[in-house]
Amino acid sequence: MDTVFVEKGESAKTVDRTEFQKLLTYCREKKGCVDVLVVYALSRFARDKYDHFAIRALLHRFGSTLRSVTEPIDESPTGKLMEGVLASFAQFDNDQRSERTKAGMQAAISIGRWTFQAPIGYLNTKDANGNPTLALDPERAPLIRLAFEKYATGLYTKQAVLDMVITEGLLTRRGRMPANQEFDRILANPLYTGWIRVGTWKTFKQGNFPPLIDQETFDRVQAILKGRRPTLTPHERNHPDFPLRVFIKCATCGLPITGSWSRGRSKKYPYYHCPARCRGINVRKEKLELEFTKLLERMQVRQENVVLFRKIVVDQWEQKQDCTISLLAACQRQIKELADRKQNLIDAFVYQKAIDQESYEQQRDKLEEEITLAKLRLKDAQLDEVDVEAILNFAETFLLNTARIWLEMSLEQRQRFQKVLFPEGIELMPHCGIRTAVTCPVFKMLQPEMTPHTSLAAPTGFEPVYPD
User: Fold this and answer.
1) Which of 58, 115, 205, 331 reaches 20 to 30 Å from 426, CA-CA?
2) Residue 14 has pLDDT above 70, yes or no
3) Nearest CA to 23 among 42, 36, 41?
4) Where are the extended beta strands (E) located within 148-287?
């Protein structure tokens, strides 16, 4: 009787696959009865050549022979050679497929193609040239647009808008009502404005598909989600001439400042200014960026603090290494204990005649399986090679040369750098300068106490002056 084991979505990269474990147990318990184990392809049997032959040897002890539906392997010298070659190619193919898939998706996204499953409101389709793209879902797109428009008014809560569109008939592709978390992701997804953003690849690209909502509506929604007033659009935000635009806020009205070129008598001059009616900020680009650079210089970390930081990081890394080494030692102890148990079993059967042959073979096969799986776990637990010194050298350069590094960066790097240094942004007070800002945790921990020159009001500004 044939027995079938089907893996449902589990990767071949782990020996702890549910069906794989059942298969090994079945072959062990039915030792001598399972003549042939048939797989569709060797690439689905094990993740690499080492795992393949370790499991292959285990099956051989159980009296089972491996065969592939799609590949010519057998017990002949040629068949064994082909098996080794195919196992190596399976590993190579898995590695290459992963790289090709990632590279292909990145290349497609770089020219505006969406390569993932379409979000609610869109449908996966192809353009006239047969390339993947998105099309508006005639059933769900109007409801997603309604959700954005209603929430952008500021008159409805998120839950009220969700209830509204569900009442109108919004369902997921599986026919379920959208959950609150899914609705949060919808409202925060710039894809609905026609922009592709993939955070892990640091990609932000105009898509080749129609937007479902306009940028202004999306920006209003993001402002409400973050508890603030609407911000500028991404196009306006990313101007190479004004790296501090949007990042710095006006202390008077709370709005992000913008930047533009003002025409003088003979040439244009760059200015940062507040877009609101308060007109609290209007400062030359050179002056504000010089003040920001001086702020970075005042954040200079002491050399002794960096040395301490390095020691702390090394200590934490060594602790992690110790944990990994302990895990490796535990795996090695387990393998030794299993090997000792196997030897004791052999002694009991061969020399002491304490157990019968059937019991001996059952226990031996079980120990062989446990030893093989333990060796595979030991291989998976090997230490990663990380150049901690190189990482710490970079961190030291970053901490000791913050202002110079910012000046040498590109626009995108500056914007990311600023956000890391000042996660809450910074405020600019009219005629007073930059207000003391909240810095990132590492600078809070390592930097010296900063004298907030421009962040303190004059003493006479608090108390009234009375005549004598």
Assistant:
1) 205
2) no
3) 36
4) 195-198, 203-206, 248-250, 258-263, 268-273, 282-284
Give the pLDDT confidence score for residue 453 in this predicted structure. 42
Rg of the chain, C-alpha, whole Å: 32
Give the DSSP H or E segment for 65: strand 65-68
Which residues touch 440 (CB under 8 Å, ≥6 apart)? Answer: 420, 421, 422, 423
Superfamily of domain 18-110: Resolvase, N-terminal catalytic domain (3.40.50.1390)
The structure tokens listed for 19 are 């069906």
- End-to-end, the C-alpha distance of the chain in Å comes to 110
Phi, psi of 382 (to 5 degrees): -60, 150
Integer Cα distance of 233 and 216 in angstroms: 7
**Residue 325 confidence class, pLDDT cut points 50, 70, 90:** confident
**3-state secondary structure at position 293:** helix
Type of residue numbered 10? E
pLDDT tops 80 at residue 176: yes
CA distance 375 to 397: 42
Q: CA-to-CA distance for 26 and 62, rounded, in angstroms?
A: 10
Note the Cα 398 to chain centre separation in Å.
23
Domain covering 122-230: architecture: Alpha-Beta Complex (3.90)
Measured CA to CA in angstroms, residue 4 lies from 1, 19, 27, 46 at distances of 10, 10, 12, 17
Higher pLDDT, 272 or 9: 272
- Phi and psi dihedrals of 212, rounded to 5? -90, -30
| pTM to 2 decimal places | 0.36
